[in-house]
Fold these 2 entries.
Entry 1:
Amino acid sequence: MYTIDLRSDTVTLPTPAMLAAMATAELGDDVYGDDHTVNRLEALAAQRTGKEAAVLVASGTMGNLCSVLAHCGRGDEAIVGDRCHIYNYEAGGASALGGVIYRSVPTTADGELPLAALAAAFSPGYDAHTAATRLICLENTHNTCGGVVVGLDYMAAVRALADERGVRVHLDGARVFNAAVALGVPVDAITQYADSVTFCLSKGLSAPIGSLVCGPAEFIARVRRARKMVGGGMRQAGIIAAAGIVALEQTVERLAEDHANARTLAEGLASFPQLEVDLARVQTDIVYFGLREGAPDARAFIAALRQHGVLLGGAGRRVRMVTHRGIEARDIEDALEAVAAVLRDAA
Ligand SMILES: Cc1ncc(COP(=O)(O)O)c(C=O)c1O
């Protein structure tokens, strides 16, 4: 059966140009710094994000982990939002492996950590009782808040607070290019407010594998050490870097199509009284929505849509659909028809 896979933008397959670049990539041993394709990708990523240096890692999770390990020592504190990916979905890596304490603060529906809550969460570290705060982690776009774009004014305010308190800012920018396209700005207009950023090649940008950590050169040297420690030193990694270069050069602008498809999808979903969609929060490629009374719960809804060839994710009474390369306007129409049929059957 023809499948419309809306589970995640991570299901994208490489473009023909990526496959061609992978087949002919100039390779070397990247742990020796000899893979010129990796070196080219890292230079490109650093340049795009306005940072001194960059390093290729296997995944967004590895990028965030190595970044937090490079910013914080054992017993140091990192402030995170209570709904962020680092805190909820990365197996507590920096705590488990690096003895870093996550201090969580509430997240607003716009993906922000209120400045007052941030300020109150700092512990100075000069008191023998407290761990020292070293880092604030932000996420843009914010996944569980619905792919919302965290605004530049807010990011600037966090930067100012961090400078005042002498701590660093790490941006989980797994989808920071979606934020840049939605705002209509180059990505460094966002990343300028963070000391370091992780972004993913393997989500909307369609590459098969890989994320980049970008930041100051001395920080990136520490990230490289952390990457080695967690087994992430890859050898002929130019195979994947080649696809990453194509991703950065050819697939960024087209994210706008995913955003337009997500909007059409969200507007269609909002027309069903059994579904609860906050259209103001559909800003990029992610559409979260609630299943009201009269609709099946997430498990049943997901199972029923699978019968119609539509895949999505979720739990409880909240589900998620994500648009990406390979999902066309026609697929959105078909998915909405399938939703209508499932809701009709459930009535
Ligand atoms: C906001 C955010 N950060 C980090 C990650 C982790 O990326 P990866 O799956 O490559 O480890 C994800 C994955 O979905 C994400 O949504």
Note: The CA atoms of residues 254 and 325 lie 8 Å apart.
Entry 2:
Amino acid sequence: MSRQKLKKFAENQARTNVIQPGKELFNQIKGGWNELYFKNTAPLILELGCGRGEYTVGMACLNPENNYVGVDIKGDRIWKGSKTAEHEGLSNVAFLRTQVQSLDNFFAPDEADEIWLTFPDPRPKKRDIKRRMTHPRFMDIYRRLLKSGGKLHLKTDNDQLFQYTLEIVLEMTGVRALTATDNLYQSRLMDPVLEIRTHYEVLFAKQGFSIKYLSFEFE
Ligand SMILES: C[S@@+](CC[C@H](N)C(=O)[O-])C[C@H]1O[C@@H](n2cnc3c(N)ncnc32)[C@H](O)[C@@H]1O
């Protein structure tokens, strides 16, 4: 590991808003986010594959009445979001370092109110379909963690991932209130949360890609 990464890992260890291997809460937090970490009963909203955490931090600033957890496997990316949250004095933000595939170890059934997938890796190769964050095996995890009526949002620049996800959702049972647009900023859906731009959104928008968005609720 590079010296820079080791430094960030050590800083993550010292920050209370980062929950990662080696910390007590990492093994205790399942089912206890509001009681053990946030110490309130506010709605719990997750951003999966949060990268530098722009969406997590942005939503937390816009909606201080909710709690937000950004999840990513990369510690140096989480480091950035956690630093910003600390700097902004946001007590309604945490970051969890883990694989999305392991979320059942960190969230109890029905513990979350909303999930955001922001610019997940498109995984275009056929052999990687099972690794797409909207593959049915991931959807099954999201359904377990979300309360009844819980909402899932996807923002992406990638046509193939967008179409693939739409097909998956249309085939799923127990889904309602599906909304989808292949050009978010030309649509009527806009609100301040949808206007938050992540690092990857800015990169893709500069390359001229339109931003696609879909959301739905699990019954
Ligand atoms: C293309 S980046 C998008 C980051 C951020 N959401 C954005 O829009 O700028 C995808 C992120 O997902 C994370 N990631 C990919 N697969 C993951 C997995 N299985 N579990 C947790 N994080 C994952 C990567 O580490 C990376 O930070």
Note: The pocket of S-adenosylmethionine is lined by residues 49-51, 72-74, 77, 99-101, 118-121, 198-201 (CB under 6 Å).
